[in-house]
Amino acid sequence: MIQHIETFLLDVPTIRPHKLSVATMNTQTLVLVRIRCADGVTGWGEATTIGGLNYGEESPDSIKVNIDTHIAPLMIGMDASQPARVMAKVRKTIQGNRFAKCALETALLDAQARRLNLPLSELLGGRVRDALPVAWTLASGDTAKDIAEAEHMLDIRRHRIFKLKIGLHSVDDDVAHVLAIKRALGSRASVRVDVNQAWTESEAVRGIAMLEDGGIDLVEQPVKARNIGALARLKRRFDVAIMADEALHGPEDAMALAHADAADVYAVKITQSGGLLPALEVATVARLAGIDLYGGTMLEGGIGTAATAHVCATFPALAWDTELFGPLLLTQEVLREPLVYRDFMLQVPTGPGLGVDIDTDKLHALRRK
After folding, report:
1. SS (H, E, C) 78-110
2. pLDDT tens digits along 6-46
């Protein structure tokens, strides 16, 4: 039986300013959810978002209020060993709130996998890989600093895939910044861009043409999420891979994008999808439609990153790797043992449940008062 659900907001400084077209982050607010069950098992989930309401319709504060006030009371007293039945009730009763639902489903599945003494991936169909290549986002906004940062990541064998956040400046200035980094790194690394919906279609045509000529591998969400027609036209026009991110809010969006032939790649995010099981449905739509997959991030801490890793570990193919670097962007860790990154890969945890444990002292030190 589900006995208690608690939501925590943790404000953790980032190692440097993280600049997106919609916001500049100096602190990340982790939203953690703990579910305690009558049999003594505890499960954890995470609902962290990026840039608050600058990015999407859920903020850390709204997630906490909606879980504490509206969703948790629905779940208390239900059978914790039946996560699907609990989440079916939540999804039927509560509209929207994808991030909150994801955190709760993650915590329920974490608890159930711990109960069965299995890694969470085994509840999701079973893993086919034990490590995931991880991209690093270069988002200082300074070309020289970004090149130096990328060179350091290559030297220490932590990342050889780099994504640049652009769209804050003019198309010409952003493209010049990206191509300077690509020239510096050459064939030693994959360089990709995320426009975060900042371009009009005409700007995207001009910008993508220059990026493609410069050897950039992938362009993420160049236009507004709602403009599926423009995304489809850009996909048909260019050889460089076009990835849907903000346009992809779960299985229904995955179907609509597939019907419109609007993307080469889907960025699968468990929070954007509304949970781990809906994220698996997104991946299934992609596989059936011949669309490649990428493991996306909302810059979560260790809990959300581990959850996504367990999901991605089950994908038969993961052509564009992942960007599960969220914990590496934070100055402080809330796990007892940090996730392991080595040889350009994140090692998928092997212990029961998520395979990670919260350090409660660190949790309370970082918790918003």
Report:
1. CCCCCHHHHHHHHHHHCCCCHHHHHHHHHHHHH
2. 999 999 999 877 666 566 778 899 999 999 999 999 999 99
Q: Is the dihedral of CA 265, 147, 153, 119 positive or negative?
A: negative
Model pTM greater than 0.85? yes
- pLDDT above 70 (res 77): yes
**Interatomic CA distance for residues 318 and 201, integer angstroms:** 28
Write out the DSSP string of 269-289: -HHHHTSHHHHHHHHHHHHHH
Catalytic position from the list 64, 101, 165, 182: 165
Q: How far apart are the C-alpha atoms of 195 and 73, rounded to whole Å? A: 39
pLDDT digits (tens, 9 = 90+) for 114-144: 999 999 999 999 999 999 999 999 988 889 9
pLDDT number for residue 118: 98
Q: Which of 14-18, 353-357, 365-369 has the lowest mean pLDDT?
A: 14-18
What is the spatial distance between Cα 252 and Cα 247, in angstroms, rounded to a whole number?
Answer: 11
Residue 15 lies in domain: 2-117+359-366
Same domain membership, residue 81 and residue 168: no
The CATH number that applies at residue 93 is: 3.30.390.10
Provide the pLDDT for residue 54: 74
Classify residue 112 by burial, with Cβ atoms within 10 Å: 0-12, 13-18, 19+.
Answer: buried
341-342 and 292-295 strand pairing: unpaired
Phi/psi for 213 (5° steps) reads -60, -30
Measured CA to CA, the distance from residue 152 to residue 125 in angstroms comes to: 37
* Domain shared by 45 and 164, yes or no: no
Indicate if 142 and 269 belong to the same structural domain. Answer: yes
64 is catalytic: no
Do 96 and 191 fall into the same domain? Answer: no
Length of the chain, in residues: 369
Answer yes or no: do 233 and 247 share one domain. yes
Q: Which of 61, 93, 66, 64 is closest to 78 using CA atoms? A: 93
